[in-house]
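lol forgot to send this yesterday, sorry. struct tokens for the thing we talked abt
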């Protein structure tokens, strides 16, 4: 059920992004103006639309693969709060871009992608259990190249979105550090320690009850 739900949500979000890109190609329009434009009232609404708007084919393909893997992993390992974290990452990183980024249209899901990667990585660090640390190690190995995206090193790339997403992921990972993940769930094992008289286990139940007679002999009822 968890896998099915996570896969459905991930594919649905990707489908919206691809549908908008197909509309752009079909109608020969450009929807970049729906992105985030910092410190502009209309540009503020781009916080909600920008993750679905992409520049070109290369942009949307690269983001699709990364988003698919990371979003599905989020729902797989932390199903209880996955949707909440996804929304919070989008809003927090988007607001940071709106407040602090360069005056230009910022589009694409890369801010959310960096946010999920950062969240999963730091959650494992903060929780310190073996399972969560394995996730952190996998993220570090698979997405180490993302570190270069945190600084301005390529024309036309919103490094502000990357940095904002990473910071948002770090903050949320610390906030949710005590949340149960699929690796941190512990099965409760109840151990009965009700012993009577010199270590003999009490085996009384509804069908088998002891009564004490006056001469201290046990009588089965």
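and heres what i got for the seq, position by position
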């Amino acid at each position: 059920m968890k896998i099915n739900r996570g896969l459905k949500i991930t594919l649905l979000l990707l489908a919206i992004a691809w549908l908008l890109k197909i509309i752009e190609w079909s109608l020969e329009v450009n929807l970049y103006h729906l992105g985030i434009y910092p410190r502009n009232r209309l540009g503020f609404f781009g916080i909600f639309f920008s993750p679905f708007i992409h520049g070109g084919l290369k942009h949307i393909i690269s983001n699709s693969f990364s988003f698919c893997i990371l979003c599905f992993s989020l729902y797989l390992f932390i199903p209880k709060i996955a949707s909440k974290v996804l929304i919070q990452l989008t809003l927090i990183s988007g607001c940071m871009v709106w407040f602090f980024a360069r005056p230009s249209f910022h589009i694409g899901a890369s801010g959310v992608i960096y946010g999920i990667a950062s969240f999963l990585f730091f959650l494992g660090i903060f929780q310190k259990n073996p399972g969560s640390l394995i996730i952190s190690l996998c993220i570090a190995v698979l997405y180490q190249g993302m570190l270069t995206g945190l600084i301005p090193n390529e024309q036309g790339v919103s490094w502000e979105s990357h940095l904002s997403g990473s910071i948002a992921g770090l903050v949320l990972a610390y906030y949710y550090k005590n949340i149960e993940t699929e690796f941190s769930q512990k099965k409760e094992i109840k151990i009965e320690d009700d012993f009577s008289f010199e270590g003999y286990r009490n085996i009384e139940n509804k069908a088998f009850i002891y009564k004490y007679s006056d001469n201290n002999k046990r009588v089965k009822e």
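The helical segments are 2-27, 46-49, 57-77, 82-100, 110-127, 130-142, 159-175. anyway ping me if u want another try
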